[in-house]
Specification:
Elements (H helix, E strand, L loop, with lengths): L5 E9 L1 H6 L2 H7 L1 H13 L4 E10 L9 H11 L5 E4 L2 H4 L3 H14 L3 E4 L4 E2 L5 H35 L12 E3 L7 E3 L1 H16 L3 H10 L5 H7 L18 H8 L8 E3 L2 E5 L2 E6 L6 E3 L9 H10 L20 E3 L6 E8 L2 E8 H4 L9 E2 H32 L3 H5 L3 H26 L4 H35 L4 H10 L7 H7 E6 L5 E5 L2 H28 L1
Helix pairs in contact: 6-7, 8-12, 9-11, 14-20, 16-17
Amino acid sequence: MKAKQFYAAMYLRLSRDDEDRDGLNKSESNSIGSQRELIKSFLREQPDIELYDIYVDDGFSGSNFDRPEFKRMIGDIEAGRVNCVVVKDLSRFGRDYIESGRYIQKTFPALGVRFIALTDHFDSISADTGESSIVLPVKNFINDSYCRDISTKVKSQLEVKRRNGECVSAFAVYGYKKSEEDKNRLVIDEYAAENVRRIFAWKIEGMALSAIAEKLNSLGILSPKEYKKSMGLHYQSGFSGTGSSVWGNATVKRILTNEVYLGHMVQGKTEKVNYKVKKHTAKPEEEWIKVENTHEAVISADDFAVVQRLLKTDGRKSPESGTLNPFVGILFCGDCKEQMIRRVTRYKGASKVYYICSTKNRGEGCSRHSIEESTLKEIICESIRKFANSFLKEKELFDRAVRYETNFEAVARYDKEIERLKKEQDKYYSLCSGLYEDLREGVVTKEEFERLHSGFTQKGKELEAAMLKQEQLIKSMFKKGVLSAGRLKTFQGCVELREIDRHTLSSLIRRIYVYENKQIVIDFYFMDEFRIMEGLGRKILEDREEEKRKAGRSA
């Protein structure tokens, strides 16, 4: 009887984990070249086995079977071209205990495929029941455990690097590149960084995300994906499909909201489902790992903060003038708190620009709250000049006063807001104490006591939190100063402000409210700092002057 002829698939696999962690000797023995030579040497001595093809998955994990060459081999098996699979050992075939067992013990026998693992001395033709049902599953289980152990160790090492502020991603974020000296450190890629600065500047000017994307594409600037490819990097992004990618709203927004441009490393935003599945799931923001000041910033903290505020709304160009509306996202109706919208009326060749309540415009109530743009700009411009002047004067007094004091506690004791909050807290705690006497004398029932005591205690805790917040703000002002260099420059520029621009509005004003009688209320940023400076600075200096007068009288 003629012996059956086998047409063999030589399957070779090597993962990065094998290369990095098996040790030098084992790494060499697992190399693709070593596996190939071992199997070829075996096949030369087998008259009944003829090599059909070689299938190589280089750089693929054994934790799953989602590998291109493995899939091609299975296709040839199903097509009847291959009826024998030869591997160096079971771990080269796969490290998934369940899937490896399913292929070797069910799928291959059903398809009439012989399976040979050389260094494990397993051949499905000659294997007895003990080898197939006991030894093989045990070895596969050990390989699976090895893969799980490697996954745990890798995850732990990456966690340590993230907490140390080291960049562990395969590619640097757009605007940066990996340092030649240290691949875990980011350095600025000046060309891409300049594009990032332009994106932030355009957003501050009031451009919508879509308008920024269109401008980048019209200028022929490569998207982050295409730019990385142009640099010779084998970059694949989970955000875009196949083919050439262009700038889009999502790409622009990811750049505008990424704290990496402040010089901070933010990592660990996703995690793998498990070591067998490549899928990643998003982690809640409080679980992200953030390490500040790990590399040079591309964007100032002030501009980044302005952009985050602007992203809550979107800017659009006026169809008539083609200019950007500086008040979008900032101007609101004082009564219904909806945004005001820009309208243009024309009469006898003349045009007038004004703002009205969007609720009224939709016919849903409220009233027009109409105000001319020229009037609004004049009022806002004057208000900003006054606020900037007053702020800078109080800052000068505050800086002088702080120089007299040597520590935070000495400064904080002058704060009237903390004093007010403390008195308010003492009042509620006193009421709590009085309740015990009222309960004892029968003035209140037990149920009333518990309800009132709970309310007073909660109010006391809220006041405690308010005092802590105030103290933290004063401490920050005491240690770091009131303004950053960028903010100080903005304030100084506003003293001589002649024309409203988007950057000034976004930097200084949170919201503008317009009421029906054309009364305007401006909600400035830094009002808390202004009030603290106004109270503390003058009080400290007044006390200093009083001390001098007393010292003079004593002399």
